[in-house]
Amino acid sequence: MNAPLSTIEQLQVALPDLDWVKETPRIQRLSQDFSWFSPVLKRQLAGKFADAVVRPRTEDEVKRLVALCAKLRVPLTIRGAGTGNYGQSVPLQGGVVLDMSAFNQFLWCKGGAARAQAGMRLWDLEKQVRAGNGMELRCMPSTYRSATLGGLFGGGFGGIGSINYGPLASRGNILGIKAITIEEEPQVVELRGAEALLMHHLWGTNGLVLEIELALAPAQDWNEYLVVFNGFDAALEFGNAIASTTGIAKREVGFLSSAVTPYLKPLAEYLPANRHAFILAIAPVSELAMMELAGVHGGQVTYRKEAEEIARTHRTLLEYTWNHTTLVAFKSDRNITYLQSAFVAGEHLEQVKRMEKLLGDEVLMHAEFIRNIEGKVTCTALQIVKFTTEERLQEIMQVYRDNGVRINDPHVFIVEDGKAGGDLPQAYTDVKRRFDPLNLLNPGKTRAWQ
Amino acid sequence: MNAPLSTIEQLQVALPDLDWVKETPRIQRLSQDFSWFSPVLKRQLAGKFADAVVRPRTEDEVKRLVALCAKLRVPLTIRGAGTGNYGQSVPLQGGVVLDMSAFNQFLWCKGGAARAQAGMRLWDLEKQVRAGNGMELRCMPSTYRSATLGGLFGGGFGGIGSINYGPLASRGNILGIKAITIEEEPQVVELRGAEALLMHHLWGTNGLVLEIELALAPAQDWNEYLVVFNGFDAALEFGNAIASTTGIAKREVGFLSSAVTPYLKPLAEYLPANRHAFILAIAPVSELAMMELAGVHGGQVTYRKEAEEIARTHRTLLEYTWNHTTLVAFKSDRNITYLQSAFVAGEHLEQVKRMEKLLGDEVLMHAEFIRNIEGKVTCTALQIVKFTTEERLQEIMQVYRDNGVRINDPHVFIVEDGKAGGDLPQAYTDVKRRFDPLNLLNPGKTRAWQ
Fold this sequence. Notes:
Two copies of one chain form a homodimer.
Chain A: H1 7-14, E1 20-21, H2 24-29, H3 39-44, E2 52-54, H4 59-72, E3 76-79, E4 96-99, E5 106-110, E6 113-117, H5 122-133, E7 135-137, H6 149-155, H7 162-165, E8 174-180, E9 188-192, E10 208-218, E11 223-229, H8 232-244, E12 250-256, E13 276-282, H9 287-296, E14 300-305, H10 307-313, H11 322-330, E15 336-338, E16 341-342, H12 348-359, E17 363-364, E18 366-371, E19 377-381, E20 384-386, H13 390-402, E21 406-407, H14 426-435
Parallel strand pairs in A: 2-4, 3-4
Antiparallel strand pairs in A: 1-2, 5-6, 6-10, 7-10, 8-9, 8-10, 11-13, 11-14, 12-13, 12-18, 15-20, 16-19, 16-21, 17-20, 18-19
C-alpha cells in the first residue's frame, strides 16, 4: 500500500499539464530573492523554501492552480524575477511558489497607457512601447532588465524616472490592475485608479495580480554623464539644481559620495579618488543647461555617452544607480549592507549633509533625487553600510530616525515593519479579505493577517 | 527748391525695396499693442506713434535697415504681433517700428529643439513641430494664435505649459538666440544658453533678436475640462493637487473664481452661477486620476472635450486662460483692468485665500498654477480689477505687496518699473552697450539708458 499523497503531490497529479519545477536546487533558488542584501534577512530567511514551484503560462493555468490551492489550503507565494529585497518571494510556510515569469504577454499600448501581464519584464515592456508607440516607462528600478512588471508593482518603489513622475504610487501612474481571488472558485476582478494601489507594495500578500495597466511617458533620448566634484556640499547643490530645474529634461539624478565611488570598479577611470559624483541621464536638448550648472557648481564632466551609443552597446550607467549601486559594491566587499531612507523635502540637503557628518565613515552616502508623492524634489537614499553587527545596524537606523529622516527598513520581512511603517489601513485589510479570504498568500509576511 | 528730406524719407528713399507701411491709420495701429488693458498706460501712451513702419522679410533687409537707422540715428521699436501688454511695441520717440511678422521662417527641428525666425507665429511653430516631429512648445501664451516667437521672448512670461516647464526664463527652455547689433556696420551674433536670457523680457530694449532656438516637449494629446466647485478653498485645493501630482500629465491648470466666470459668456452654459471653476488641459491617460481628485474635493465636471474634437473644431478653452480671460472679460465690461502677481510658493494657497478675503469684491481672482523658476508649484495671478481710479489701483497693488505678494506691475511702461522690479543688473547693461551702443531701441523705455 502506497503512502498517501502530500498536498503538493495532489496538486501536481491533478494539474500535470502545468510547468512544475521539481529539482530541489531550482526550487531553492526560486524561493529566494535579493533579501541577502540584508545580513539580518539572510539569517532570518535561511532555509525558507517552497515545496514546489510552478510557472503558469495562461490565465486558465493560474485559475486552475489557485482553485486547487484554495481547496487544499496550500500557501502560495508570488514571484516575479526575485529582484526584490524584502523576502517578498520567500515562502515563510512552504507551499507553492508561483513563478510568474512565463505569464508575460504584452497586451496593448494606446493613448499614453500600456497593459501587460504581470510577469512581463520591464525592459521588454520598455522596448515594446518605445519601438511601437514612442513611449517609455515613467519609472523603473535599476533591475529593469530582469525585474517584472508585477514585481515592481508588488514590492517596488519607482526609481529611474521618479525624478519626473514620483514613485509608482503617485496618483495617475498606475491606471488599473486585474487580480484573481484565491478561492475554490476564483474571481477575476479589475481594480481601477486609486483602488488598484491597495495592492501596491504589499509584497503580494493581499492579492494575486494578473495584469497591470500603466500610464507611460513620451519617450525621449537620454544621454548619460558622470560629473565629479571636490566638495560634498557643492555636489549636492548641483544635483538639487538639476533635479529642481524644470527646463532640464532628465531621467536620473543619482549622487555617490567619494566613499561610494571606489566600489564602482568598472567606472574607475571616470571616478577620480576623493571626488563626489553624479550619475545623470539627461535629454540631449538639456545638455547645455546641465553643463552650465556643472560650471556654476565647480563640477567636471568625466563621462559622456550619447543615447545612440548606449542603445547600441547596452552599456548604461543606469545599472550603477539605485540598488544596483549596492549590488555592484557587493562584488568587491561582502561585508556591507544598506539602508533605505526618505529625507524631508525642503530639508533634504541639510539632512543629507548632517547624516554625512554624523555617520559618513560607516554609512556611505548614495542618494537619489526624486519628486515625492507631493511633487516636491527630495532625496531618497540607499546608503552603503559597513556592516559590523545587527545591533549596530539598528543603532544607525535609530540615529537617522532621531534626525527626522524616515527609514524604510529593508532588514525586516514583515510588511508592517517595512515601508508600510506600522498598522495597515482598513482599506488594505478589506482587499485582503476579498482577494485572499483563506490567508494563503505567503502567510506570516503580514502581521495583521496572522 | 524742394524741402530737405526728413530722416524717415531718407530711409525710404535709400531702401525702396523694403516693405514700408505708409498709411497713417496702419502706422498708428502698428504703433500699439495690448497696453490698453491698463487705463494708466492707455492714458500715458496715447498719441505715441511711429513715423513709419517697415516689415523686413530677410536678414539682409534687417541688416540694411538697421545700418541706415544707426547712421541716421533713427529710433527703432521692435514689434511682433502686438499682443504684449507693456507698451513694448509702442515707440516713445517716434522713428521706425520694425514689424517682424514677415520675418517668420521656420528653420529646423531636431533633437528636441527647434529654431525659427523671430516673427514666426507660435501657433505656426507649434503646428510645424507637432506634425513634423511629434513635439510641442514647452510654454506659450494664450495669445499663441497671433503672438510671435520673438514677442514671447521679448515680453512674454510663459503661460500654457508653465505648469510643467516653468516660465520661459527657466534654465534650459531657451537654447540660443541670434541677434544683430544696431550699428552702421551691424554684427550678427549668436548667444547660447543663459547668455541668451540677457535679452529676455527687456521688451526689445537691449537687442534686436533675429532667431530663437527653443527646447521643446514631446507632444501629447490634451483633453480640456471645466470643473466647478461650491467652495473657493476646496477648488484651490483641487487645483493645487492637480498641479502638484506628478503622475497627472497636464498642460494648463487655471482657476477662475465665481466672480470671474460670469465674464466668460461663451462658456456660460458650463459655468453655473456662484461656482468657482478650473480650466484644465489634461492628457487622456490622466483623466481618471483628475476625476478622482475632482471627486475628493467635491468638484463637478461640466465640460469635457477630447483632443481630436478640439483640433477639428478649433474651439479650445486655452483661449479663456491667462490674459485671454481678461480679454474676454473686456468684451462685456470696459471698466475693468487687471493685475499681475506672483505668490510665494508654499504659501500660495493661503495668500490667494487672504487676498480674496481682503479684496474679493473689487479684485476678482483669476490664478494660474505653474511651476516657478525653482521648480516649485505656485500661483501666478491675472486678477480682473473693477477699475475706479488710478489712485485706487495703486492702493490695491500696495495691499498685495503689504501681504507679501509680488506685483509685476502691468501699469508701467518703463522696464525697471515692471517685472524687472528695479535697477537692471550690470550684465543686461553690458548687453545693451554691445548690441545697441547708440541707444536707438525704443529710447525712453529703460531708465538705465536715458
